[in-house]
């Protein structure tokens, strides 16, 4: 039997936001390895293919296999409070086009794992300090450093996710040299945002309102921070449009999006004004990533796509699913199946091949009907829905053991 193991990371979500790379939970590669170990012990003759998945969040560069990497380097940057952190910059090997030829030799696609720079802290107190005092300037610094490595025809893809810092992206713009310099720089480069989180910057359900859940600051203080961040970000959007009134998005398509491009976004990338013209606002899809940097960068000319879809294309998910008999994916906590999340993307791709897809998760609160609609046949959770102790509370070694045992059980259930 041929089985594809395509799990995402299994991270806890204490406030509905995955604490990716936090030391709690397991990275995608470890999840895949544990499931494969258990499966092979029970069914040694099955052919297993491992394809760890990511969504643009912290550590996404680690799932890109060596055969897909033309070069890899580490760039040092500053976190929200000035702490030195390292992010990976990967230049991808050009993939053959549908005609069988390599992509244009002079153009390259790069991936910057910038989400690691502004990763949400596990400690709500530390997150509060970042919200009150932090800056996104380090993000602008590493983007600028990465762009300096690229050529005029290259595309730089920047992984971004939710963070505690909430300065409306002003630090990012300032680190790129200010509005005019940043606008000029991005007009000469193709920059794409690979968004792990689709939350908007402002509004009742925006990143600012959510600060009260991921930090120790009060809802009133969170609202105050949000008003200030949104006002500043919209000043940048307005000023950027004044510099180039016709600019509402990227001038060039992102070459990494091919087979999955026609799927589109789960929500509109722009809101529309009364004339039907696309415009950016604080309620636009995905603008809350990176403390509002996603909104500012898009105003300056960057494009944006759901991270799981971009990573699926980079990793070759559609090709990997073909000729399999079963696909297994995984996620930490499943309260719904987002069409642009790892489970949703893997489920859709598997369903397109009329194959069964099962999902392993730490905690599952999704009905069978919701799973079926997402292309998932069944789900296996490590924790009961109403359990008091969290599924990852006993630490990574225990979690690895549980996943290995579950891999063995799944093989006895599904292998033929």
From TrEMBL:
It comes from the Bacteria. Keywords: Kinase, Transferase. InterPro entries: Glyc_kinase_flavodox-like_fold (IPR018193), Glycerate_kinase (IPR004381), Glycerate_kinase_RE-like (IPR018197), Glycerate_kinase_sf (IPR036129). SUPFAM superfamilies: Glycerate kinase I (SSF110738). The keyword Kinase applies. It holds the Pfam family Gly_kinase. Transmembrane segments: none annotated. One of its GO terms (biological process) is organic acid phosphorylation. GO terms for molecular function: glycerate kinase activity. Belongs to the glycerate kinase type-1 family. This is Glycerate kinase. It comes from Actinomyces oris.
């Amino acid at each position: 039997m041929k089985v594809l193991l395509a799990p995402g990371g299994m991270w806890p979500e204490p406030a509905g936001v995955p604490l990716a790379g936090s030391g709690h939970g397991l990275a995608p590669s470890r999840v895949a390895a544990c499931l494969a170990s258990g499966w092979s012990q029970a069914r040694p003759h099955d052919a297993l293919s491992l394809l760890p998945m990511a969504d643009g969040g912290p550590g996404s560069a680690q799932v890109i296999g060596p055969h897909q990497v033309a070069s890899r380097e580490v760039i040092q940057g500053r976190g929200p409070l000035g702490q030195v952190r390292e992010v990976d910059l990967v230049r991808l090997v050009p993939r053959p086009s549908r005609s069988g030829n390599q992509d244009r030799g002079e153009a390259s696609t790069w991936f910057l794992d910038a989400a690691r720079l502004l990763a949400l802290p596990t400690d709500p107190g530390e997150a509060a300090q970042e919200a009150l005092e932090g800056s996104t300037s380090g993000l602008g610094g590493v983007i600028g450093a990465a762009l300096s490595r690229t050529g005029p025809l290259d595309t730089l893809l920047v992984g971004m996710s939710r963070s505690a810092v909430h300065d409306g992206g002003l630090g990012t713009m300032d680190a790129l040299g200010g509005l005019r310099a940043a606008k000029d720089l991005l007009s000469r480069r193709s920059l794409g945002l690979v968004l792990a989180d689709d939350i908007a910057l402002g509004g009742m359900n925006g990143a600012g309102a959510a600060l009260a859940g991921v930090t120790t600051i009060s809802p009133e203080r969170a609202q105050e921070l949000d008003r200030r961040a949104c006002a500043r970000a919209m000043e940048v959007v307005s000023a950027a449009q004044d510099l180039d009134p016709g600019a509402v998005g990227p001038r060039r398509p992102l070459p990494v999006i091919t087979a999955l491009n026609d799927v589109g976004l789960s929500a509109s990338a722009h809101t529309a004004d009364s004339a039907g013209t696309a415009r950016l606002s604080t309620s636009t899809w995905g603008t809350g990533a990176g403390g509002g940097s996603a909104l500012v960068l898009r105003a300056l000319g960057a494009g944006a796509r759901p991270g799981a879809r971009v990573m699926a294309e980079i990793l070759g998910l559609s090709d990997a699913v073909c000729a399999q008999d079963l696909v297994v994916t995984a996620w930490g906590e499943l309260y719904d199946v987002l069409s642009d999340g790892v489970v949703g993307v893997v489920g859709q791709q598997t369903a397109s091949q009329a194959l069964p897809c099962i999902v392993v998760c730490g905690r599952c609160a999704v009905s069978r009907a919701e799973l079926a609609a997402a292309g998932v046949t069944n789900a296996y959770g490590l924790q009961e829905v109403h359990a008091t102790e969290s599924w990852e509370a006993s630490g990574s070694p225990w979690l690895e053991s549980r996943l290995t045992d579950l891999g063995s059980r799944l093989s006895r259930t599904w292998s033929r």
